[in-house]
Amino acid sequence: MSRRLAEVARKVGVSEATVSRVLNEKPGVADATRQAVLTALDVLGYERPTKLRGERARLVGLVLPELQNPIFPAFAEVMGAAFAQRGFTPVLCTQTAGGVSEADYVDLLLQQQVSGIVFVGGLYAQEDASHEHYARLHARRLPTVLVNAVIANLGFPCVSCDDSVAIEQAMGHLVSLGHTRVGLLIGPPDHVPSQRKLAAARIVADRAGISLEPDQISYSLYSLEAAQASAMRLLEAGVTGIVCASDPMALGAIRAAKRAGLDVPKDISVVGFDDSALMNCVDPPLTTVRQPIEPMCRMVIELLVGEIAGNGLTQGETLFEPELVVRGSTGPAVAR
Predict the structure, then answer these.
(1) For 139-161, what is each residue's pLDDT tens digit?
(2) Taking CA atoms, which of 97, 269, 278, 307 is between 20 and 30 Å from 27?
(3) What number does CATH give the domain 60-161+293-322?
């Protein structure tokens, strides 16, 4: 019992005495704290006391496009803990190739009568994708929050890392190191965050008086293997630095450089985006632009919980400024 009390107390961020009061149905505990303790029991796999088993935990959907990119588990971990502290049980939905689609997950979550849904990196960011399931959520007025740039007119609140600032930081860093021919490795052309990054890159290049020709822009799927192939085209174009739209893409660019017999950062500099787990442990340690995951997640939770509480449907986008983290994958430019 003492171990269970300690684990639940740690999970919720309260004292063991508070957990004990909840389990024994004692007065003097706020309803939100009581719900958070009961949810933590569920999340940690402990059975509720018999007298409390009839109370269903409140559910929220957390929909991710994948788990291979470490940034998505990072968002899920922070949000999952925050939801549990607010008395909600997150239902994690992750997509796999040929598996359950995002629209199918929406149907499943609606069947579970979830209180709200958070999407991280979903189809809402792709102009050419189907968005019918978002329209259904909007018609039902189900509290929904989207993470990172979204197509226009979906009508949901969005919490984003500022893509323009990220590119200003990444390209500005390379320009300060003497790079005048910088390549951009981004997602598909219909991907809104990539469109924003490209628009910002054009502005930075113009201000710095450097070129950004079509052969310096390469589109790719968000995987290490796809990025490696796309990065080869940039290397063939003679770039001395590459700014990437994700950390796995940056690792693909580094692999492409090594396969081409180039040293990173002596011959080619590479900048990632996200600062996902273990990027300081790769060879060389990756210079990257860090997404502020914790403050973004706090805003997501506040928006969703506020809507669930009946505070009205919020719209618009909240932007968070990223941070450049300089490590060993960037260095002074050399002539190629």
Answers:
(1) 888 999 999 999 988 989 999 99
(2) 307
(3) 3.40.50.2300
